[in-house]
Design goal:
about 5% helix; 5 helices; mainly beta; about 575 residues; Immunoglobulin-like; disordered N terminus; six-stranded mixed sheet; eight-stranded mixed sheet; globular
């Protein structure tokens, strides 16, 4: 087993080496569950004694670190009451769930300190494993790193018809994989590549008592940037039964599964006849292709990620979870299904639109090709701009071109997509299932196809972005609107005939704008509700909005111009 080594300094190195030798294995923590038609989450500060010495300040949902697993059923309707008890602005994104943009929890659905956000929506996804996490603009890595993440499990009648392990915490286990960096005071550090301490469900050096039968691992890569190459220490095969968005057509036998940040795969591991034995779930990172964070090498020559080569996990094979096999349960599952329901995928020949999205550094240079910051199609994220307009019900092919020296896991909100091909070669195996994250390797082009159905909103966008959280925070993200028709919606600011400026922002009781007198405008809140009652006046031919009656939160002002619509955000 690779020992956990801290690399911030010589003192940190010594301390971490000491900790790795004195910490006994700990029972794997299994998060509690929440279910029902109304679910409450309190986003709160906490502290955890991960390592000897100082406790570590953390964030969590309904607890100190991470959050409960939310159990949902397809076609049920659920309402959330989410209280932000932090001193920071935050959001809650339902990663992988097909919901309306006003409920998506992206950077535009900010929850202010002491504010309660109450989204409600119907569960439309097929049975699979999803997750929820912070998605606040420019602070996603910081907040997720401190603990704002949790699993979502969706059940449906089709999945229920198969003989599968599904007793949570008994034969059906949540496996949230994260790598962490601690400084000398045991504070969690972000924006580094010395993440040499591994956690599963927030447990360091975990051990799991698993029954001698078929067990189910719902694996989520919740790390900021590290990719894992999952396998068993025995090199035995297991079976992959589901990817990000649902069940595969049939279980696929494998002895390795590459899991990049944001991705989920469900594994069946047959432990029948192994009572009394021990094995490990491992990451065989030495087998990862160069350019993937976690592999032996990212970059070439002098162009290297700072501190990357010093991290002992990079390019190494290391243990993730010790599995101790214990007695069977009363009604054990001991067989693997042969077939599942065949997925009906989107057909390339039926696509309405094709688009090309290109990853490149903001400034061209050898080091920038590895370290960034990176752009998508030449643009960094702007909260006030819309990058793509998609007509409602469009089926689209997106070609994702990676012109950098580092692999990027690419995530699209709202929909599940099918991966068509990599560099023109059709994908096979576990990549043929429903996905919402795809890893695009250096100098690779990946095509995906999706249909943008069910929801449209001409004002509130969804996101697409790299799921390396530092890249996302630096601006490797764009927004798209699913329009009610092909011809309406917000135009990118560069096409508008006037500039709209708002001040002060955040606003007190009066908002001054550069909207000319007589312009047609509307104000709405972060949920898309139009604010109808407010006073307005004009000062030197500029609009003045009296906002004393507005509750604290985020608002948008939409201004119609001869060339389209421009939208600006302000905060009360």
């Amino acid at each position: 087993m690779i020992k956990n080594i801290q690399l911030n300094s010589f003192i940190g190195l010594f301390c971490a080496f000491t900790f790795s030798n004195v910490n006994a294995q700990q029972a794997l923590f299994i998060p509690s569950t929440l279910s029902g038609s109304t679910i409450s989450l309190d986003i709160q500060q906490g502290a955890v004694n991960f390592l000897p010495g100082n406790s570590t300040p953390t964030f969590g949902y309904n607890g100190n670190f991470l959050g409960p697993t939310i159990l949902l059923n397809k076609n049920d309707s659920v309402s959330f009451n989410i209280t932000n008890s932090l001193l920071d602005i935050t959001t809650v994104h339902w990663h992988g769930l097909h919901v309306a943009p006003e409920n998506d929890g992206g950077p535009h659905q900010e929850i202010m300190p002491s504010q309660v956000w109450s989204p409600s929506f119907k569960i439309r996804n097929n049975a699979s494993t999803f997750w929820y996490h912070s998605h606040v603009h420019m602070s996603t890595e910081y907040q997720v790193n401190l603990g704002l993440a949790g699993l979502i499990i969706v059940h449906d009648s089709t999945e229920a018809s198969y003989v599968l392990p599904r007793t949570y915490g008994i034969d059906d286990f949540p496996i949230i994989i994260q790598s962490k960096s601690f400084d000398i005071l045991n504070q969690l550090a972000a924006f580094t590549h010395d993440d040499s301490i591994m956690m599963i469900n927030g447990t360091i050096d975990p051990v799991l008592d698993a029954p001698a039968q078929v067990v189910r691992f719902r694996c989520l890569n919740g790390s900021a940037d590290r990719t894992y190459n999952l396998g068993l220490s025995t090199n035995a095969n297991f079976y992959v039964i589901a990817s990000d968005g649902g069940m595969l057509d049939q279980p696929i036998s494998a002895n390795r599964v590459r899991l990049s940040p944001g991705e989920r795969y469900e594994l069946l591991i047959d432990l029948t006849g192994m009572q009394g034995q021990s094995l490990y779930l491992m990451s065989y990172a030495s087998q990862l292709q160069n350019g993937i964070i976690g592999s032996p090498q990212v970059g070439t020559g002098m162009a290297q990620l700072p501190g990357y080569a010093m991290n002992p996990l990079n390019g190494a094979d290391f243990n993730l979870l010790n599995i101790d096999v214990v007695a069977q349960t009363t009604n054990p599952v001991t067989t693997i299904p042969v077939q599942f329901q065949t997925n009906v995928k989107w057909l390339v020949q039926n696509a309405d639109t094709s688009r090309i999205l290109t990853f490149a550094p903001e400034v061209m240079g050898p080091q920038e090709m590895v370290e960034g910051p990176f752009t998508i199609s030449g643009k960094s994220f702007d909260m006030d701009s819309i990058n793509i307009h998609i007509p409602f019900n469009n089926t689209e092919i997106w070609s994702i071109v990676n012109n950098t020296m580092v692999a990027h896991p690419f995530h699209i909100h709202d929909i599940q997509f099918n991966v068509v091909d990599r560099n023109g070669v059709a994908v096979t195996g576990i990549e043929t299932g429903w996905k919402d994250v795809v890893l695009v390797r250096p100098q690779e082009t990946v095509r995906v196809i999706a249909k943008f159905e069910t929801f449209y909103n001409d004002n509130i966008p969804y996101m697409y972005h790299c799921h390396l959280l530092h890249h996302e925070d630096e601006g490797m993200m764009g927004s798209f609107i699913v329009n009610s028709t092909a011809s309406t919606g917000i135009n990118s600011n560069i096409y508008n005939d006037i500039k709209v400026e708002l001040y002060p922002n955040p606003v007190g009781d009066i908002l001054y704008t550069t909207i000319p007198k007589g312009a047609d405008f509307v104000i709405y809140n972060s949920t898309g509700q139009v604010i109808e009652y407010y006073e307005k006046s004009f000062l030197e031919d500029k609009l003045v909005v009296h906002t004393s009656s507005f509750v604290n939160g985020m608002y948008f002002i939409q201004v119609k111009t001869p060339k389209g619509i421009i939208v600006k955000k302000f905060v009360k």
